């Protein structure tokens, strides 16, 4: 069956360090992968999208890698700040879902950046 | 630029009543998606609509749930005869379509069934 797993439910790091979050998937042929941020009581906020033929994408302090051989995406936040504390969600859309717009979300990793 | 708008933000219904959740997509967006987030669970896709068309409803429960996105006005997610298990946060997202796949989410409607 299809599965998306995000590493450890919670991750604590010290301010200024790089946070690395992992998203692994099985039994998918993803067309693209997205990362979102969700704060308590709010809707997810789009961060980055990476397509199956892209290896890496960057946006300011954020970097995403996508390895379709390993079936894994890594999400990095460099020079982390307490304001980066949130739950980060990985989401996949696959060709097999028909419209290729149906997103399947991982359960999220709760990141806490300690001052 | 207004983002995705959802109302109401909080909705309380008694078992057996109907719940209507509204979503106005971002300006210029013609694709709407509904997701449900149950307590302590992840976001689950429900339905994908374009104006006047349901494109993908593979995540919708077979009974009691329906969605529409009329030519004019917001998208509506309707839940008939609500049960306690329907209590959840319902999120709407929109996208512009074409080669743009990123989805922009609204603040959600928190439905509580008593």
Describe this structure in words.
The complex is a heterodimer of chains A (115) and B (114). Chain A is mainly beta and 115 residues long. Chain A is 0% helix and 57% strand. Chain A is built from no helices and 11 strands. In chain A, the strands form 2 sheets. In chain A, strands 2, 4, 5, 9, 10 and 11 form a 6-stranded mixed sheet that branches. A 5-stranded antiparallel sheet of chain A has the order 1-3-8-7-6, with no helix packed on it. In chain A, 33% of the residues are buried. With 114 residues, chain B is mainly β. Helix content of chain B is 0%, strand content 49%. Chain B has no helices and 11 strands. In chain B, strands 2, 4, 5, 6, 9, 10 and 11 form a 7-stranded mixed sheet that branches. A 4-stranded antiparallel sheet of chain B has the order 1-3-8-7, with no helix packed on it. In chain B, strand 4 and strand 5 (43-50) form a beta hairpin. The mean pLDDT of chain B is 93. Chain A binds chain B through residues 31-32, 34, 36, 42-46, 49, 89, 91, 93, 97-108, and chain B through 4, 31, 33, 35, 41-45, 48, 55-56, 58-59, 91, 93, 95, 101-108.
Q: What kind of oligomer do you see?
A: heterodimer
The CA-CA distance between the termini of chain A, in Å, is 41 Å
What is the tally of helical segments of chain B? 0
Beta-strand fraction estimate of chain A: over 45%
Which chain pair has the greatest contact?
Answer: A-B, 25 and 25 residues
The biggest beta sheet of chain A reads: 6 strands, mixed
């Amino acid at each position: 069956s299809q599965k998306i797993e995000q590493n450890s439910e919670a991750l604590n790091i010290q301010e200024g360090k790089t946070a690395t979050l992992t998203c692994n998937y099985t039994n998918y042929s993803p067309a693209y992968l997205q990362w979102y941020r969700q704060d308590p009581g709010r809707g997810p906020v789009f961060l980055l999208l990476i397509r199956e033929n892209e290896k890496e994408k960057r946006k300011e302090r954020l970097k995403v890698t996508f390895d379709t051989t390993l079936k894994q995406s890594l999400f990095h936040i460099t020079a982390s700040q307490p304001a980066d504390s949130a739950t980060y969600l990985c989401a996949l859309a696959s060709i097999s879902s028909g419209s290729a717009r149906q997103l399947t979300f991982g359960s999220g990793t709760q990141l806490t950046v300690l001052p | 630029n207004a983002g995705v708008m959802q109302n109401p933000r909080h909705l309380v219904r008694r078992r057996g009543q109907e719940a209507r959740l509204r979503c106005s997509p971002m300006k210029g967006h013609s694709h709407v998606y509904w997701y449900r987030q149950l307590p302590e669970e992840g976001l689950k896709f429900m339905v994908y609509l374009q104006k006047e068309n349901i494109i993908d409803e593979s995540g919708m429960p077979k009974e009691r749930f329906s969605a529409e996105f009329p030519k004019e006005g917001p998208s509506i997610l309707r839940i008939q005869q609500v049960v306690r298990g329907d209590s959840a946060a319902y999120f709407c997202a929109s996208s512009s379509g074409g080669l743009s796949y990123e989805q922009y989410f609204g603040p959600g409607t928190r439905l509580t069934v008593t």
